[in-house]
Amino acid sequence: MVSEPLTHIIQMAFSATNTSNAAANGIPPLVSPPTINVTKLSKDNYHVWKAQLIPFFRGQGIFRYLDGTISIPSKEISIAATSSVISNPLYEHWQRQDAIIVAIMFSTISENVLIQVVSYTTSAAIWCALAKSFSSQSHARVIQLRTELVNAHKGSQSAHDFFMQIKCMTDELVVVGHAFHCDEIISYLLSGLGHDYDSFVTTITARTDPVTLEEVYALLLTTEARLQHHNTPTIQPAVHVATRQHSSSSYRGQNIYRGRGRNYRDASFSNVSNGRNNFHRDTMICQVCDKPGHSAKKCYHRFDVTYHDNSAKSNNPQGLIATTSSVSASDWHPDTGVTHHLTNNTDNLNLQSEDYTGSDHVQMPPIIATHGRSSVGLLL
After folding, report:
1. Which chain regions cross the lipid bilayer (predicted)?
2. What is the pLDDT confidence band of residue 364, given thresholds at 50, 70 and 90?
3. pTM exceeds 0.70, yes or no
4. What Cα–Cα distance (Å) separates residue 226 from each residue in 199, 205, 213, 247?
């Protein structure tokens, strides 16, 4: 008669292939996980691949097969009462479960890496072989990442891109077992910012309360937005003047742009005293009455807006501009909403009438420009 313990063992052996019966007899059911979609293991991403598989196998309750926690059961067991040997149902269960794990691992390994471990038959052996194979490479990668962290600079990158660069490198180091404190990551981030972010760096380092990485990221984006706002060029208000670029005479840093006044002769500069330029009386021509021997400053008709020189030969009112910077804009802006325009180039206008003889005039001290004159800029 077969003893009760022997009967129990035989029942376990015959029911090992049936999942429900195996569970009823103390043998856990086989775990057959669904297809896992992870980045395949290559020569450059071992730690990323490992970081994906560990939580998956732990979630299925089978990671102990990989780390060797579950030892391999013996293939056979001996029955002392009958001196017989039977197959161990626990071994058969382990063998089937481990084969499922090996199949999952092989499906997540690229071909050029798979050839290195294809000869191993257990999941634990494959796991250990991969760890040894990539250990030296991992050490070199750690040194490389730490060097890149120290030398990282924002440069022309956006604040978001620079933050993600630092975060990715520190995350990869965490995967290989080099943990980082939040303050250490922030220090790498702050050291890589340029001079424009000095106020931001001062604000963060002066904080007495703990600051999180997420808070630093939000403040960094805000600071970048403010800097971009202040650095955006604004359109400066300008008088809408149509002008043609002329050659200029420069004397002691002052440029004088001459209009096309009638009978205007080039003046000779002489008798320079106390930094002021004077025309020689023999060649001085008044710009108001066009008479020689005196300047516009001493002309009797200087403030007479009704004065009109009948000897005028030009119908193109123009003015002189005295400026310390060159006027090079040549664009004509007619549709501006203003009621009057001022130009030193009558080619921009369509003049159909005679010289204007009204009382309106434009005055810009120390230069007075009046309508109806061919050369209205006054040289004082």
Report:
1. none
2. low
3. no
4. 12, 20, 20, 43
